[in-house]
Design a protein that fits this description.
The complex is a heterotrimer. By secondary structure, chain A is an alpha+beta fold. Helices cover 62% and strands 13% of the residues of chain A. Chain A has a domain of 78 residues: 2-Layer Sandwich (Fusion Protein Consisting Of Minor Coat Protein, Glycine Rich Linker, Tola, And A His Tag, Chain: A, Domain 2). In chain A, strands 2-1-3 form a three-stranded antiparallel sheet. In chain A, 27% of the residues are buried. Chain B is mostly beta strands. Chain B has two domains: 119 residues, Rossmann fold (3-Layer(aba) Sandwich), CATH 3.40.50.10070; 259 residues, TolB, C-terminal domain (Neuraminidase, 6 Propeller), CATH 2.120.10. Helices cover 9% and strands 44% of the residues of chain B. Chain B has a five-stranded mixed sheet. A four-stranded antiparallel sheet of chain B has the order 9-8-7-30, with no helix packed on it. Chain B has a four-stranded antiparallel sheet with strand order 10-11-12-13, with no helix packed on it. Chain B starts with a helix and ends in a 5-residue tail after the last strand. By secondary structure, chain C is of the alpha+beta class. Chain C has a domain of 102 residues: 2-Layer Sandwich (60s Ribosomal Protein L30, Chain: A). In chain C, 33% of the residues lie in helices and 19% in strands. Chain C has a four-stranded mixed sheet with strand order 3-6-4-5. In chain C, β4, α4 and β5 form a beta-alpha-beta unit. Chain C is elongated and about 80 Å long. Chains A and B meet through α4, α5, α6, α7 and β3 of A and α1 and β1 of B. β9 of chain B pairs parallel with β2 of chain C, so a sheet runs across the interface.
Chain lengths: 201, 422, 154
């Protein structure tokens, strides 16, 4: 009898622990996910300000500083290498340029981030001083999932083509587009082309 | 480069055409490769084939390998290979294999190379050989695997010739495997030895020896050890280089203190003169098609690189910038060259495209010389110096890897990379 | 544009697996080494003069002070049976170019001796380039010792 009750109690304890363990693990995971996507939202609310600023460019630059800041944060959270000086200047220029539309700005940001992500996984083969490129079409879901991809224009170099295809199949997911306005997504990222280039050494 | 890359961002959301994103840089990390222990390989001696292949593939720092203890499985055929196991380890390429002993000494080896990113087999190979040829077998497997992955020729069974100066008044020419193993002494002398150059068939080596009190060019047969000097009129012959078509040796002869470039016809032993200038003309180097020569000349006042068309004798200056550009060699593409580039007394290995003006220094130490290019054009080995010790260093052209070759007693210099075996 | 669509349609991925198949056999060989060395030596005259003329980097021209130094040799040189001029360089720069430069240096000394009346037929010139340095260090004090022409009278 006591044996049974000890077994019963201990099994309850074990199951509770197991349950807790699993749910905590799950909540941790989902937390991560939320963090992951919440930051871009912060950024997206900002371009509204840019519009009003266009008439007063001097102030605009001041107000824009936090924008660039948060953009850098996005990068950190997306676990990307820090933007280099050129990239920072470039982004600054992009955002302050008054003739750029809100859509342009948002799309440009996604392009920068997607470039960084794909560069980080692409194992470029050693090609000796060859100027070649391969173009690949990507079909994306609004969730960032890569639905399919296809070789559009081959570089005529099998190893080079393969390295690009391998890079994309290693990713399978481009979270950069998750919080993009749906209209912008459909127009730009639903189906787009990646051009992998080698410009000699 | 980086600015360029950013300028390449193309943004066209307003037009009907599709968005294009350009990717030019690629990852900074090296591709990861796993060489799985071959089935039955433990039977085949002290060193295993897989460990030899792994040592080859990582020799020039072109790949990172993962340890056997980190592998999740040891597949030996397509049937028990699971891409998932390797994707988890972020491995890019996997080599597996199986050894079948047809009898006690003969080995039959089957091997496969997998591309994990693409989820496909990129090479199926088999090789047979003797138990005591394990090193050679591993080199061929490595060459095949390297070729299937990079599209470039594997250079693991190439050789290196070099000069060793163990102490004053002792000079030796050695040949070793490209990984530094299997060193073999070709010739030793009390007087300086210089400028080793391979014949295209790898059967002969030309070099300069001072053994008779003045610099002469010798040709040594590598299999028999027979050697003889080239008969010229001059008392100062140097810088021999074998033409890729094996018809000529270009060399430098100095008649009454005026070094010029000459050709030695290997068939009829006739000598013809190619340059005629009172300044220094030296360090000839053949283009891959045997039609042009690079050489160093100080005709402008400082050493600079010139290019000469052998059939017409036309000469064109190649380097314009810097106060010391010398000892150039063509890359296998015939369009780019490697050279020694000196500025303010600092000498680096540099590359240059024949059509562009820009000279790109690729080595960091200050007394770098004698660059030699791997037959696949991807690796450069050169001589450098630390304190009084001369040693050999190397790098890959993408700049991702730098290495030094094992240090020997005394100074090592003038590395000469052999052509590929036929 | 049409071409692009055509390419898209015909583009293949994961469909054709272009696996290469290869087959090899192994052969191995060994190299032979050779050895032969003739060492030439002769009786050198002992003169109480510095036997080294120094040069600037990548230069073969004589400085005024080295011309003075050579001048002190003239009488001995005229009486000697043979004169050997050995040109050397410092380690900077490339070896084969330095071999030529060392020769240019020795020739420069030879020409000066001829101007001063020494018979050209008894002067022998040889260059060792940077192959026989006196000092092994990589600094100016070592380099300047190595950029030299050595004069030997026999």
């Amino acid at each position: 009898m006591t044996n049974f009750s000890i077994g019963f109690v201990s099994s309850i304890v074990i199951h509770t622990l197991l349950f807790l363990f699993l749910t905590i693990d799950l909540t941790l995971k989902s937390n991560k996910k939320e963090n992951f996507s919440s930051v871009p939202i912060k950024f997206i609310s900002l371009p509204e300000e840019i519009k009003t600023i266009t008439s007063m460019p001097q102030k605009a630059i001041k107000k824009l500083e936090p924008t660039v800041q948060s953009l850098l944060e996005v990068n950190e959270i997306l676990n990307k290498p820090e933007l280099d000086i050129f990239a920072q200047e470039n982004l600054n220029a992009d955002i302050t340029a008054s003739n750029l539309s809100k859509e342009n700005k948002e799309v440009q940001l996604r392009i920068n981030l997607i470039q960084k992500r794909i560069n980080s996984v692409w194992k470029k083969p050693p090609l000796i001083n060859q100027d070649i490129q391969v173009e690949i079409t990507i079909n994306l879901a609004p969730s960032g999932e890569i639905l399919s991809f296809k070789l559009l224009n081959s570089s005529k170099n099998k190893v080079f083509d393969d390295s690009a295809l391998a890079a994309i199949s290693n990713i399978s997911f481009l979270p950069e587009v998750i919080n993009l306005d749906r209209r912008y997504f459909e127009k730009n990222f639903r189906s787009f082309n990646l051009v992998f280039k080698s410009m000699g050494n | 480069m980086r600015i360029l890359f950013l300028f390449f961002l193309i943004l066209s959301p307003l037009s009907e055409s599709k968005l294009k994103i350009e990717i030019t840089q690629g990852s900074e990390t090296l591709p990861k490769i796993a060489i799985v222990p071959f089935q039955n390989e433990i039977l085949s001696g002290r060193e295993t084939i897989s460990s030899l292949v792994e040592a080859n593939m990582t020799l020039f720092g072109e790949f990172n390998s993962i340890k056997k203890t980190e592998m999740l499985s040891y597949p030996n055929s397509e049937e028990n290979f699971f891409y998932r196991d390797w994707r988890l380890l972020e491995v890019d390429y996997v080599v597996i294999g199986r050894v079948d002993n047809t009898d006690l000494t003969n080995l039959d080896i089957n091997y496969l190379v997998f591309d994990i990113g693409l989820k496909k087999i990129i090479l199926k190979g088999d090789i047979s050989g003797n138990l005591n040829e394990l090193e050679q077998i591993s080199k061929i497997i490595s060459n095949r695997a390297y070729q299937s992955i990079t599209g470039l020729d594997g250079v693991f069974n190439t050789k290196l010739a070099y000069i060793l100066n163990p102490n004053k008044n002792s000079y030796k020419i050695y040949i070793s495997d490209i990984d530094g193993s299997n060193e073999q002494l070709l010739f030793k002398s009390l007087s300086p030895l210089m400028s080793p150059s391979w014949s295209a068939d790898r059967k002969k080596l030309a070099y300069v020896s001072f053994e008779r009190g003045y610099p002469e060019i010798y040709i040594q047969d590598l299999l028999t050890g027979n050697r003889s000097s080239i008969d010229t009129l001059g008392m100062s012959n140097s810088a021999p280089v074998w033409s890729p078509d094996s018809k000529y040796i270009a060399f430098v002869m100095s008649m009454s203190g005026n070094p010029d470039i000459y050709l030695y016809n290997l068939r009829n032993k006739k000598i013809s003169r190619l340059t005629r200038h009172y300044g220094i003309d030296t360090e000839p180097a053949w283009s891959p098609n045997s039609k042009k020569l690079l050489f160093t000349s100080n005709r402008s006042g400082s050493p600079q690189i010139y290019e000469l068309i052998v059939s017409t004798g036309r000469i064109k200056r190649v380097t314009l910038d810097g106060d010391y550009n010398a000892r150039a060699r063509y890359f296998p593409n015939g369009k780019d060259i490697v050279l020694v580039h000196g500025n303010d007394g600092v000498f680096h290995i540099a590359t240059k495209n024949l059509k562009s003006r820009f000279i790109n220094s690729i080595s960091k130490t200050s007394l770098d010389e004698s660059p030699t290019i791997s037959p696949n054009g991807n690796i450069i080995i050169y001589a450098t110096k630390k304190k009084t010790q001369g040693f050999l260093a190397g790098l890959t052209l993408n700049g991702k890897s730098k290495f030094t070759l094992p240090v020997q007693e005394g100074s090592v210099r003038e590395p000469a990379w052999s052509p590929l075996a036929n | 544009m049409k071409n692009q669509y055509a390419a898209l349609i015909f583009a293949t991925f994961f469909v054709i697996s272009c696996t290469t198949t290869v087959s090899d056999k192994v052969t191995s060989s060994d190299y032979a080494s050779a050895e032969s060395d003739v060492y030439v030596s002769a009786e050198k005259l002992d003169i109480n003069l510095s036997d080294k003329i120094y040069f600037n980097f990548d230069k073969a021209s004589l400085t005024d002070s080295s011309k003075e130094l050579i001048s002190e040799y003239i009488d001995f040189a005229k009486n000697a049976k043979a004169i050997r001029l050995e040109g050397h360089c410092d380690e900077r720069g490339t070896r084969e170019y330095n071999l030529a430069l060392g020769e240019k240096r020795a020739i420069e000394v030879k020409n000066y001796l001829i101007i001063k009346g020494v018979s050209s037929s008894k002067i022998k010139v040889i260059s060792y380039g940077e192959e026989k340095p006196i000092e092994l260090g990589s600094d100016e004090s070592s380099w300047k010792e190595n950029r030299r022409v050595e004069i030997s009278l026999f």
